Every structure is written in structure tokens, then in C-alpha cells.
Fold this sequence. Notes:
Elements: H1 2-6, E1 13-14, E2 23-27, E3 38-42, E4 53-55, E5 59-62, E6 67-73, E7 76-81, E8 90-95, E9 112-116, E10 122-131, E11 134-145, E12 158-161, E13 167-176, H2 191-199, E14 211-220, E15 227-234, E16 251-258, E17 263-271, E18 275-282, H3 295-298, E19 299-302, E20 309-313, E21 316-320, E22 329-333, E23 350-353, H4 369-373
Antiparallel strand pairs: 1-2, 2-3, 3-7, 4-6, 5-8, 6-7, 8-9, 10-11, 11-14, 12-13, 12-15, 13-14, 15-16, 17-18, 18-21, 19-22, 20-21, 22-23
Amino acid sequence: xxxxxxxxxxxxxxxxxxxxxxxxxxxxxxxxxxxxxxxxxxxxxxxxxxxxxxxxxxxxxxxxxxxxxxxxxxxxxxxxxxxxxxxxxxxxxxxxxxxxxxxxxxxxxxxxxxxxxxxxxxxxxxxxxxxxxxxxxxxxxxxxxxxxxxxxxxxxxxxxxxxxxxxxxxxxxxxxxxxxxxxxxxxxxxxxxxxxxxxxxxxxxxxxxxxxxxxxxxxxxxxxxxxxxxxxxxxxxxxxxxxxxxxxxxxxxxxxxxxxxxxxxxxxxxxxxxxxxxxxxxxxxxxxxxxxxxxxxxxxxxxxxxxxxxxxxxxxxxxxxxxxxxxxxxxxxxxxxxxxxxxxxxxxxxxxxxxxxxxxxxxxxxxxxxxxxx
Length: 374
């Protein structure tokens, strides 16, 4: 009991109550959260100074909410719940029938206050494979709910949609404790678990071996095609695992654009030691079947170049060979060039380039650390 009294917030504001009431409910707001205790203040002394401590609650809840009441002073006390309140409920609080103060006068006939619990809903979402406003065809997300949710018919409530109205159905599963958990922020754990831990902090809490049942991983059933302003939408109707609650509001998570693969830049370099080289910089990683050994089948350079070699480095393809300075060349991007996620290439497939002479510079011999120290 001392633990819950310690949780009491003293600098609070009155919750909504009838004007002129001789009882006030002090709360930081009207929305209940796990660990919240409810302090009541009275205009007159209710008990003698030697009667502080546990007592029969001077107030009643509709619907009923079991709990204990402790007098902290002769004119104030705190209600500590002993059961988890359901989500989406509004409690109406009134004075207990026949309540009298220490002097024997009736108290609380006009008192009425309300407190509510949040709705069953998605409280947070995290998206994956999104950088800035650029999404990927395999972009997925995790929706976090304040109750354990049922997978039964859940997939039909989710869809991916872009600005043109194109849609892709979703696949839904529980998030994995191994790969999807990440860090939990306050309010992202299951509502009932949070309340149980606040009511009985020492009680052991058990969770499934791997599935996190208040978190859903949502992935596209097929890769998202090229499109702008993709969103992941959830319609109302998702049921809690116990079947007692249903989401009533839609939820929308902006994802971004799925853009075609583009050649962002083509740089012809020429250095005194490494010679001529070509750097192709793409907007995304290219397909894994484009390797140093196979790149010549996807990229063609005319006129032909002897000793042509390719290197693949993340979003770049590096080309070296016996290029000639001042000669005009063309790079041809083949039809088979796609991103690592299968997004097709868009843009000019033929780009001209030439290598300029190495700019005149003063080249000094290499100086080693030993020479400097000498």
C-alpha cells in the first residue's frame, strides 16, 4: 500500500466535477493510465486524526471498480484500484449513499465526477525499409496496440495504397521478440500487463516464447509497384485477443514513394596512378545477379574497350579498362537492369561520356613518417 501512496501526484488539477461540490477529485487529467491513483479532497474533516489509514471508500464507481481507500489526512484520501479497468469505459463517481463528515453532517449529495480509460487502438507504429520519403517494394511496418490482438481475419483490415488509388493487400503476423521487439516506450506495453504490474509489482509476468501479441507486423502480400505517397491503412474492426474489445477508429501510416531505379550520375574520372575509370551511381542497390563477372551482360560500352573490368559497391558500379583520353564513348543500360528489390530502371538508357586529360599539377614524391622525423 505504501508503494501506491508514493505514486500519488500532489501537484494536480481537479477532474471534472459538479460546480459547488464539497468533494473534489484531484487528477492530472480525465484519462486513466496504469499506476494512477485517485485522490479525493473534502471541504470538511471526514475522520478523526487517529483514524487515518485504510477505510471503506467514501465514493462509489459506476460501473463498479474494486479498490481500497486510504485516508491520508482528515480531509483527503486516495483510492487505489485492485483490478484492471477495461479499455473504452467511462466511470461515473459519486459519494457513497448516506456519507457524512466527522461532525455528522451529510456530504457529497451534489458530487459527480468522471474518469475514462483510453479506447482499444493502435498507440504507435514503426516502418521499415524507408529512408526519408523513399520506400521500398518490401516496405513493412509494426503496429503496436494497447491490448493483445487477434489475428483472426486481421489481414483484411490492412492494405497498402498509393496516391493514384492503387492498392496491395497485406499479410499480417505477430511481431517477433527476437527480431522485431526493439525498445518499448512508456504506453506501448499491453494495457492489462501494465496495470497488473502497477497493482502487484512483484507478480511474475509471462509472455509467449517469441510472439508479441500486442504488436502486428504488416507486410505487402506482393511487392509495392512504383508509385507516390504509399500509405499503410488500417480499417476499424480489429478484435482484441479476448474478443471483448474492437478498434473503432482507422489508422494510417505514411510510407513514402516507391521510385524507379535511376542512374543518378555518371562520372568519368582520370587519375595519374589509376588511369581512366567510370563511376555509375544509382538511386538504389542493383540486383544481386549483376556481379563483376556478369555486369558486362547488363552494361555495354561503345566503341568496345579492351580489358574492361567491373566492380559493384553498394549503389555504384565502377568500370575500368583501356579507355582513351578525349574519345567519345556511350554507356548503354540494358533492359535487365533492376534494383535489388526488382524495381525497373527508368530514365535515359544511353549516356555519352569522355575522359579528359589529367589536370596539370605539381606531384611531390611520397614522404614517409621516418623522413619527417629525421
